[in-house]
Amino acid sequence: MSNFLQEFGIGITRDGKLNRGGQLILECIPNTPSSIKSIDYNYAEVNRASTFIAKVWENVESKKAKEGVGNTVLGSAFECLLALVFCLEKISPFFMQAELSFVPNAKFDILMYDSSGWPISISIKTSLRERYKQADLEAMALKQVHRKSESYLITLNETEAAAQARKIEKRDLVALDRIILATSSDFDQLLVELKSRQLIDPDLVPVISYSEHQVNVNSVVEQAFLQNKGLS
Asked: What is the mean predicted confidence (pLDDT) over 207-229?
């Protein structure tokens, strides 16, 4: 039986099942919603996306302490959680684990394509340590091909986010546009900005060479509407 993450196309393995990170998020969302309608209602009860993320991740941390969840699963869970938030905010289409033509050795956690013709990449890290350097290198590779592209790094570690954000101000990091704490108002502001953009299906612009999953909220919502009306 599918769940709303699979319906959105989030966290799906090659054999069509939900990966461990997605399963963890399902287990940690308050009130355990079972459908797109119920998760939409659940999400609407929270005033801000950053608050929703904080609540879910508090439950993830509790499970981590009790069950010893590994870092790989935590990273996958955080990626699934952010993708879910984008869907609930109707920010789509976007690609997960995507590669771009002419941008070698870079795989982007989430990639969107703006109607103005420039990609928007989002790197997702539960903590930064030295990983911010990799995100900056990938952003640099992207900007060398797509000069006006935008690159954001989203994390859950407040101390590291503040420290690395200062490096952007000092130009020690040259390609990342912003480093954002997912549980802060800065993340809510990013969502506002992304919602104001017209995102397009990259099929119209053949630059995405590979992606594990394409997520398009509009097609999912339309299909649910047709099913409710008995039209499909």
From this structure: 58
Number of Cβ within a 10 Å radius of residue 81: 27
Q: Which residues contact 12 (CB under 8 A, 6 or more apart)?
A: 6, 18, 19, 22, 213
- What's the rounded Cα separation, in Å, for the pair 163 and 75? 21
Q: How many Å apart are CA 70 and CA 65, to the nearest integer?
A: 10
Q: What is the pLDDT of residues 154-200, one digit of tens each?
A: 999 999 999 999 999 888 898 999 999 999 999 999 999 999 999 99
Residue 29: partners with Cβ closer than 8 Å, 6 or more residues away: 39, 42, 56, 59
Q: Which residue is associated with the tokens 């099913």? A: 227
Q: What integer pLDDT is reported at residue 215 of this predicted model?
A: 77
Residue with tokens 């790094």: 153
Q: Furthest-apart CA pair in the chain: how many Å? A: 58
Structure tokens at 52: 């929703």
Q: What average pLDDT does this structure show over 51-79?
A: 94
List beta partners, residue 137. none
Q: pTM for the full model?
A: 0.85
**CA 16 to chain CA mean position, Å:** 20
For residue 228, give the 3-state DSSP assignment.
Answer: helix
The candidate with the shortest Cα–Cα distance to 26, out of 14, 38, 113, 201, is 38
| DSSP one-letter code for 204 | G
Angle at 165 between CA 160 and CA 169, to 5 degrees: 150
> What is the Cα–Cα distance from 89 to 62, expressed in whole angstroms?
26
Which letter does DSSP use for residue 178 in this model? Answer: E
